[in-house]
Automatic annotation (TrEMBL):
Keywords recorded for this protein, A-Z: ATP-binding, Ligase, Nucleotide-binding
Domain of life: Bacteria
Pfam families: ATP-grasp_4 (PF13535), ATPgrasp_N (PF18130)
PROSITE patterns to which the protein is assigned, alphabetical: ATP_GRASP
Keyword Ligase: yes
Keyword Acyltransferase included in the entry's annotation: no
InterPro entries for the chain: ATP-dep_AA_Ligase (IPR052032), ATP-grasp (IPR011761), BL00235/CARNS1_N (IPR041472)
Protein name, entry field: ATP-grasp domain-containing protein
Organism, as annotated: Marinobacter halodurans
Annotated ATP-grasp domain residues: 117-318
Amino acid sequence: MRSERKHIAVVLQNVKLPFIFEEAEALGLELTFFYNSEDPAPGGLPGVIKCVPIPIFSDASAAFQIMKAEHEQRRFDGIVTLSEPSLNFVAHVAQSLGLRFLSPETVENCRDKRSIRRTLDSNGLNTPGYIYHDGTRELDLGSLSFPLVVKPTNGFSSQGIIRVDDRDSLLEAVKNVQDINERELSRIARDKPGIIIEEFIDGPEYVAETLSINGAVFVLSIGDKGDCKGPYFEEGIYIAPARIGDQQRQRISQEVIAAVKAMGITDGPAHTELRVNADGKPYVIETAPRVGGQGISHYIVKETTGVNLLKLVFLNALGELRESDLPNPVVPSKTAGNYIIPVRGSGVFQKIDCERNILDDASVNRVMQFFERGKLVRPYPHFSGYPGFILTSHDNHQQCEDFYKALDENLVIEYD
Ligand code: ADP
Ligand code: CA
Ligand code: CA
Ligand code: CA
Ligand code: CA
């Protein structure tokens, strides 16, 4: 008997962030979940009819053949990934199998920080001074002025992102990032070991979640991401809606919409990070063509506005998304946040301790711990993963901030 249900391929997912599975089940979709063959076999995931291991990073063409065979057995109606390092692969698979996704070129352009800078700059968007350094020639800073940020062109999760205030620390940081490119990013950023050096935008950071429908870009949420001054940029808090006035919101929205369009994200979700300088001028740092945080952005959007972002993402994958699926305008009625448990140290991870009842607070919706006892954790700018997330919702921004301060004071991360 042929199933009437739509069948979607999901490629890589941290299974401790189950929104994509939960929403698929609620929508009556059937997922085939392609997981990294280096990870343990998952089980018991809602909405998933089959789990298939693929050697996505060690042998992409074998991984593709496996997916093709599954597709021939039972056709996929769509393909989705929330995983940054899988985007390129998924774009190629989609193109080969005739499924809807952004083109490999568009995805590649968003993955590469040099292309992002070039594209935004040539489209008249606010762009910090920057240079590309391939390591072969002597470093020429041109007209750049300190402080600067040094980054791997194809990194993610702030791995190898270093702020420097003078030339000596710059040279040291460049060496450090070259090393991270070679040793830690080479599997994912193969053949792309370059470095971007750009001016530090001094001011608060924001993140916007958007959805593109047939070239039109809709801002679903703008959230606060703190104001980290470096020298390293560990992810901290995400609180939405951002505490900003209408005019600032308008300015940020315009810049974000223009950036998403410039990057060629004509359909589907994007997660755009930006900073606003002392003059109130927004600078896009990067735009990722995906739902942020492997589903965290879905939680934030749904909790604050009621809009089911992942449902819209599935509809987009199926080619069924219409503007009328979105309320107009999208208005937040609640505050929600993600408290990213800080690494706070290094060594062999033991446990996260907290004053017992703080996590029993009514504002806490989910607690997710990713570090397991015995994990070796290196300090930033190396990236060992996130210790865990605490997802909350509140009546207002102040309550959320106050609660996160209490978490800061009460969580203890133990290492040996
Ligand atoms: P990744 O892909 O690793 O997330 P990003 O370019 O987004 O790399 O940088 C990570 C973080 O570093 C940003 O979220 C921001 O806090 C900080 N950062 C990066 N570039 C700049 C910049 N030019 N000015 C100020 N902060 C920056
Ligand atoms: Ca990134
Ligand atoms: Ca970030
Ligand atoms: Ca980023
Ligand atoms: Ca609750």
